């Protein structure tokens, strides 16, 4: 995927992966968000570490997702918690899955320019990149439940009165 033949969709997909990695890094290290965002843009964007091939990231989208998750994390975590099965808590979930769900939730709430089904598909694919077990199905179930609450109109449903809006 070179700069000349990269589609906006591919650039956003690469940005989602980077946002997931940045959110994970922020949770693990406690580093300043701007430092981590700058590190990604300055040093990690451009070449795929595994293949050495050029990769184009949507930097604006990446920054929006990371900043948005951090700014609204308390509300996002509450929204995710409502979508978990009884007895499950967000702290019980693997840190990569937490970052993934937070980014997906942010997009479902704040990025209405991206269809809900695209958000779900993108984050399920990311889960498949990181996990071989039941995790992609778990991500699908949680984000689908969130999407039906937050984007009910896209599914032909009546929106609930008390749902989170940014």
Kindly report the spatial arrangement of strands forming the biggest sheet: 1-2
Number of domains: 2
Radius of gyration, rounded? 16 Å
- The overall strand count is 2
**Number of helical regions:** 7
Roughly what fraction of the amino acids lie in strands? under 5%
Helix-strand category: mainly alpha
Nearest-integer average pLDDT: 89
The CATH architecture designation of the largest domain is Orthogonal Bundle
Structural shape = globular
Q: State the helicity in percent bands.
A: 55-70%
Task: Point out poorly predicted stretches.
Answer: none
CATH top level of the largest domain is: Mainly Alpha
Order of helices and strands: HHEEHHHHH
The rounded distance between the terminal residues' Cα atoms is 34 Å
Sheet bearing the most strands, described?
2 strands, antiparallel
Describe, in short, the structure shown:
63% of the residues lie in helices and 2% in strands.
General description of the model:
- With 166 residues, the chain is mainly α.
- It folds into two domains: 1-71, no CATH class; 72-166, NusB-like (N-utilizing Substance Protein B Homolog, Chain A).
- 63% of the residues lie in helices and 2% in strands.
- It contains seven helices and two strands.
- It has helices spanning 8-29, 33-44, 59-71, 73-83, 95-110, 116-130, 135-150, and strands spanning 46-47, 54-55.
- Strands 1-2 form a two-stranded antiparallel sheet.
- Helix 4 (73-83) crosses helix 5 (95-110).
- The longest helix is centred in the first third of the chain and has 22 residues, at 8-29.
- The chain starts with 7 loop residues before the first helix and ends in a 16-residue tail after the last helix.
